Amino acid sequence: MYKLDFLNPTGSFKDRGASVLISHLNEIGIKEIVEDSSGNAGAAIAAYSKAAGIKCRVFVPAEAPFGKVLQIIVYGAEIIRVPGSRENVNKAALEAAQKSYYAGHLWNPFFIEGLKTISFEVYEQTRGVPDAAILPVGSGGLLLGVHKGFKELREMRLAEKIPRIFGVQTYGFAQAYERLHNKKVKKAEEAILADGIAVPNPPRIDQIVRAVKETGGDIILVSNEEIIEGFKDLASLGLFVEPTSATAQAALNKLIKEKVFERGSTIFVPLTGIGLKATDKIGKYILK
Questions:
Q1: Do domains 13-108 and 116-286 have the same CATH topology?
Q2: Residue 55's beta-bridge partner residues?
Q3: Residue pLDDT, tens place only, 57-73
Q4: Which of 59, 130, 156, 248 has its CA 20 to 30 Å from the CA of residue 195?
Q5: Residue 82's closest CA among 35, 18, 50?
Q6: Which residues on adjacent β-strands are paired with residue 255?
Q7: Is residue 53 classed exposed, middle or buried when 0-12, 13-18 and 19+ CB atoms within 10 A define those classes?
Q8: Contact in structure between 245 and 271 (CB atoms under 8 Å)
Q9: Range 13-108 classified under CATH 3.40.50.1100
Q10: 180: number of CA atoms within 13 Å, CB side?
Q11: What pLDDT digit, counting tens, does each position of 227-256 carry?
Q12: Cβ contact 197:169 at 8 Å
C-alpha cells in the first residue's frame, strides 16, 4: 500500500511537519527563524514561513540537490551553503540561531506532531491499521511520527494494534541499525544517492530503536544498487520519486525475498519525495 506523500504542496512529506511547526511559531509571535536541512524540510519550512510572513534562513549541505535548493530560493528564504558533513550544517545553523530562533525539524516536537497525521490518514482512508510500515530513516522524524500516530489511535481505542515498524538506512549511514543490532557495519558506498537520509548522528536514535523494538520491526540496510532497483520498480508503476523515497521500495523488496511477511499482509509504504527535485542525481546515477 503506497501513500503518495510526494504530492503534498512542496513535493514531500515534510509539509506535514512544517505546516504545524510554522503555525505554532506564528501563533507565539516568532518573526525570524533558522533551519538546517538536506533539502526537503528546508523547502517546506521556507514555503510555510513565506505564507506566515516569517523571515527564514536555511543552511544546506554544499552538495544539496539543485532542485531542492532552487525551491527554497523561490520561496524567498535565504540559502547558506555549508561545506563538509551534515553535522557541519547543523553546527552552522545552531551558531546562527543564537541571534534568531532555531526551527530545526530534527529536534522540534511540533514537527513530529505534524508528521503523525500520516498515520491518522492511513487509518481513515483504509478503515484500519496496516500490518507493517516501511519508513526511510534520516533524523527519524517520519518513523517516530508514524509510531506516535498509531500509538495514539490505539490509546483512543480506535485501533487494536500498532504496525510493525521497519526503518530503512543505507550502508554509509547505518547508526540506528548498528545500535539496534549492536554491531558495526563495515560496508560503505562512496556515492550518496539517498541524500535525504544521509544523517550521521540521528538526534533521537534511542527513540527510533525503541519504537522498532516495541513493534517487532527492524532496521533494513539498502545499497545504491538496491535503491536503483526500487526506483525502477516504482517508475514502472508510473511513480516518479527521488532516490531517498525509493529506499522504502528497496527495503520492501528485500523483506519480501526474505519472506518476512505472511501472505495477505498489508504493508504501508509512504513515498516521501517527488523525483522532480532530484533530476540531477537520477540522471547521474540511475539513467547513466
A1: yes
A2: 32
A3: 999 999 888 889 999 99
A4: 130
A5: 35
A6: none
A7: exposed
A8: yes
A9: yes
A10: 24
A11: 999 999 999 999 999 999 999 999 999 999
A12: yes
